[in-house]
Amino acid sequence: MDSSPPYSWRRNVLTVWLSQFLSIAGFSFAIPFAPFFMQEDLGIHDPVKLRLCVSLFSAAVPLTMAFFAPIWGAAADRYGRRMMLLRANFAAWVVLTLMGFSRNIEMLILLRALQGAFTGTMTAAQAMVAADAPEERSGRALGGLTAAVFSGGLAGVALGGVCAEWFGYRAAFMISGALLLAAGLLVLFGTREPARPAPVQASADESEQASGLRGLWPILGLILAINFVRSFDSAWVPLLVQEIHGKLEGASLWTGLLAAAGAVAGMLAGIVLGNLADRVSPPRIGKVSSLFAGLLMIPQGLAHGFPLLFAARFGSMFCAGGLDPVFQIWLSKITPAHKRGAVFGWASSARCIGWMLAALSGGVVAAWFDVRTTFLIGAALYLLLIPAIVVGVRALGR
Question: CA of 123: how far to CAs of 40, 82, 152, 338, 342, in Å?
Fold first, then answer.
């Protein structure tokens, strides 16, 4: 007998928000501290080897996720978004728990690749929220989901940094798995798949939406570029913190606090800019966000103390938080409801390809030069997003 409640789009959206809070808190509880885990528990201390391992660890998830995301997206259209969200959360529970038992870097990177292949809670949640929320509420619903993601990240990194420092990195991975399990159980008992409507002949509005799918590729290209830029420096934040702090001991606490500050900024951006995207052109928001995010990356690369690093990181994360959600909202608005699972799967692949390329190219920069150079190049990349958005909008004919 089905124990889930009667269908309500509001209940579904609110429950998915809460489940994503727990899910992202789980991912953030241990993953950001992987460079420290590699040094303390896996014995990797050579700087060049460490940067290579961090680069491979960062690239493993998007590499496999880029391949599997369209498969899971198509499965969502066929079998339901709720089923895919359950699959993602429960698979993440298993993989993250196993990471805590890793005895060498090869096992850790293999599990990281499996994480990309079988998880992807954010994509599944976006598809479910976009399908459930009415068209006129899609910006608010997806913006609220972004706020839940960043607030989950805030809670995860803040508490995870304390746990890792006091109880060790393996304990942090155990708690990560438990949070993902809780997120999966919340979806299992708190949501319900809406009834599938009987096939009908496409209306004029639906035909117009379907024709709008021709504009899918420029938006996917922008999503790829945005996530390349946003991810270029992210893997190197812990090592920058360690350099400024001067030692490994205590670095996880400072990293957690810095990531928490960025999560607060992203949470605010999701609320403010998500609502704004229902009224203001997404490309306009994207161009302004790119400009200020790029300018705020420069002081991060030059910082030698935590006050400047924290202030600049907060500002850049607020601006960067306005990039991906507004284009996801735009994508949702041009996509027919029955195609959103597949389209969001392709969007996830674009995002993952950008993430993977950023991890690999950022690793090359960090190995050839130093960690700080990745932040300075990241500033230039944000500024280059502005003409990329202009070109993308022209390709859409808007």
Answer: 33, 12, 16, 16, 10
